[in-house]
Write a structure and sequence with these properties.
Structural class of chain B: alpha+beta
Low-confidence stretches of chain A: 1-17
Shape of chain A: globular
Distance between the termini of chain A: 33 Å
Helix content of chain B: 10-25%
Radius of gyration of chain A: 28 Å
Oligomer: heterodimer
Number of domains of chain A: 1
CATH superfamily of chain A: MetI-like
Number of helices of chain A: 13
Distance between the termini of chain B: 27 Å
Strand order of the largest sheet of chain B: 6-7-8-3-9-10
């Protein structure tokens, strides 16, 4: 048994007598000793917050998606799968579903490539890399509404700096109406998403890179591997668990994001750039059909759950033992 | 010219010199051990030879070729074994051993064959499909050695490759390593802070401290004729006894040369000392006797005697006994700079 602090074994006499000072402050178990209780107490506020602001609305959305609830009306009855059956043949829904998948896959692929590239560059010990790292994180820290406004100007039909720059370089003969053409509009949306997501991914990948033991990376150098072999056969495989987590976050954020599409194109032109989140908002809040809006919003949920489960499993499996 | 050579090699981190002007010459096929305490610069020296660290100044030559900063590690013909083994955790043992061969562009069938040969050399054939996390420490070490050996490098660089093994395994691994090096005849540089390892493995030992090489010599020479007091006390356990003779001179002798007078042949030329015994440790094979000299001029100086089990003189704590050292085993050092003086040297 450990001696209470402040007491010392009496010297001289053998066996040493343990002098316990009566009334010592730490003789009784305090709250700090009771890790089980302390843990619950400290987790409490967070749990409450998550349940109130994420859990309850989520359950409510599930209930709503099986109901005929409408905004401005108190009537409520369960209608089973009717909302889902209604959206399934809807071409606008198809378009939104396709756009969501396109946005998620293309932007995540781009983010992964960009993030890995910039992380490898930053990791190589550039001068002033702290400043660069700080600047990199800015897009992620800027409020999305503010950033999107800036991008609206960058893609503006008259003032687009992209167009003017391309024109000045002699690379563009016609004029690009970024928000007037469905394909260009999707390109713009994807661009903004990548711009927003990749700094955070860079930081995650950078952390993953610095977690690879230096010895292993040097062994690869001594073993004669060139840059690409080291990157593809040593660094990237060892980054995989971290990269999977980064992608998982990215997929979830991107496929459920409302703000970028809403602020950039608001689903236009002619409802061609809606994603599930904006369509749900349009149908459920603006259109007042709460039930159908919830059904649209929840449509990807099972897919996301499966994706998350698979990826977490993969991350655990590729995790390297000591 | 040596097979591996450094000329006035220097590495400064900030304004701290880690390696401070090292001239080293390793003969072809030689096993040279870099021995020194942690932070003495031995690993930095090895890393500069490997090309993992750029020297602040000085030159490195391998097989007669100048290895400047433009020669990357892969072009230096070296293989390195790290203290942690640095196995690729996501590759099997076979994948690990094959990696340097693949990097060198060896054709697939030849890779497979040489991996098999390398594995056979270390008796790890059945471990080839396993991942590093499924291997024991000793098995990992063998995989790391096999990875170093398969591409027949000009020079092996070993950075404390045995220090992660338990004591029993380490002695065996030491023996096998030495045997392997003899068999292959590959020039080897071996970094360690363990003087037993250095004595057992090295054809020659380079003792380092504070970024400098203090002495390069055979283990016997290092042990019997240490160049200075640092070498004298760093090599050997317990270390050499050093006694102040006067303001300018230290006298040194090994604990195992310091015996009770009856243990000497009557005709031997013995320097006598009187020892007040303070504590005796019986270690089985020998007795360690801790005491202080009981002399008029040089009393109260702590010394250790290491008596073999064959010396049975009874010794009581607190008593004073006649001890002595044969004159040919007495060394003299300069008290100011620690350097050995000619007297007593062979």
């Amino acid at each position: 048994m450990a001696l209470p602090s402040g007491t010392q074994p009496a010297s001289g006499s053998a066996p040493p007598a343990v002098a316990v000072r009566p009334g010592a402050a730490f003789r009784r178990r305090t709250l700090a000793d009771r890790e089980d209780l302390l843990g619950r107490l400290m987790l409490g506020p967070t749990l409450l917050y998550v349940i109130a602001l994420a859990g309850i609305p989520f359950l409510l959305a599930i209930v709503l998606s099986f109901s005929d609830a409408r905004a401005g009306s108190l009537s409520f009855s369960l209608v089973g799968l009717r909302n889902f059956l209604a959206i399934l043949p809807d071409p606008q829904f198809h378009r939104a579903l396709w756009n969501t998948l396109l946005l998620t896959v293309v932007s995540q692929a781009a983010v992964l490539v960009l993030a890995t590239t910039s992380a490898v560059i930053l990791d190589a010990g550039l001068p002033g890399r702290r400043a660069i790292r700080f600047l990199l994180l800015l897009p992620w820290a800027v409020p999305v509404s503010l950033a999107s406004l800036a991008w609206v100007w960058i893609f503006d039909s008259t003032f687009s700096v992209i167009n003017w720059t391309l024109k000045a370089l002699g690379l563009l003969r016609t004029w690009l109406f970024w928000f007037g053409d469905p394909a260009l509009a999707m390109t713009a949306i994807i661009t903004v998403h990548v711009w927003r997501m990749f700094p955070f991914a860079t930081v995650i990948v950078l952390a993953g890179l610095s977690a690879i033991p230096q010895d292993i990376r040097e062994a690869a150098v001594v073993d004669g591997a060139g840059f690409w072999r080291r990157l593809l056969q040593v660094d990237l495989p060892l980054l995989l668990p971290v990269a999977i987590v980064a992608v998982l976050f990215g997929v979830t954020f991107t496929s459920t994001d409302l703000s970028v599409v809403y602020l950039l194109t608001n689903g236009g032109p002619y409802n061609s750039t809606h994603v599930l989140a904006t369509l749900a908002f349009q149908r459920g809040i603006l259109g007042g059909d709460l039930g159908q809006g919830a059904a649209v919003a929840l449509f990807l949920l099972p897919v996301l759950v499966v994706v998350a489960a698979v990826m977490l499993r993969l991350a655990r499996r590729t995790e390297v033992g000591a | 010219m040596g097979y591996v050579e450094t000329r006035d090699l220097r590495k400064v981190f900030g304004d701290v010199p880690a390696v401070d002007g090292v001239d080293l010459s390793v003969a072809e096929g030689e096993f040279l051990v870099l021995l020194g305490p942690s932070g003495c610069g031995k690993t930095t020296l090895m890393r500069m030879i490997a090309g993992l660290e750029t020297p602040t100044s000085g030159e490195v030559y391998i097989a007669g070729e100048r290895m400047d900063a433009d020669v990357p590690p892969r072009a230096r013909g070296i293989a390195m074994v790290f203290q942690s083994y640095a196995l690729y955790p996501h590759k099997t043992a076979a994948g690990n051993i094959a990696f340097p061969l693949e990097a060198a562009g060896v054709a697939r069938p030849a890779v497979t064959q040489r991996v098999q040969e390398g594995a056979a050399l270390f008796g790890i054939g059945r471990l080839l499909p396993r991942f590093p996390r499924q291997l024991s420490g000793g098995e990992r070490q063998r995989v790391a050695l096999a990875r170093a050996v398969v591409r027949s490098p000009k020079v092996f660089l070993f950075d404390e490759p045995l220090s992660n093994l338990d004591a029993k395994l380490r002695a065996l691994a030491r023996y096998e390593l030495k045997k392997l090096q003899r068999q292959l005849g590959t020039t080897t540089l071996y970094v360690t802070h363990d003087q037993v390892e250095a004595m057992g493995l090295g054809d020659r030992i380079a003792v380092m401290n504070h970024g400098r090489v203090l002495q390069v010599a055979t283990p016997r020479e290092i042990y019997d004729h240490p160049a200075d007091t640092f070498v004298a006390t760093f090599v050997g356990a317990p270390p050499m006894n050093l006694i102040e003779v006067d303001d300018r001179t230290l006298l040194g002798f090994r604990p195992e040369r310091f015996l009770p007078r009856p243990a000497f042949d009557p005709s031997a030329d013995v320097v006598p000392f009187r020892l007040r015994v303070q504590h005796v440790e019986n270690l089985g094979a020998d007795r360690l006797v801790y005491g202080v000299l009981d002399e008029r001029a040089r009393s109260d100086q702590p010394v250790i005697a290491d008596l073999p089990v064959t010396v049975t003189t009874p010794l009581g704590e607190g008593q004073v006994y006649d001890f002595g050292v044969e004159r040919r085993w007495v060394r003299y050092f300069d008290r100011q700079n620690g350097a050995r003086r000619g007297g007593g040297a062979a």
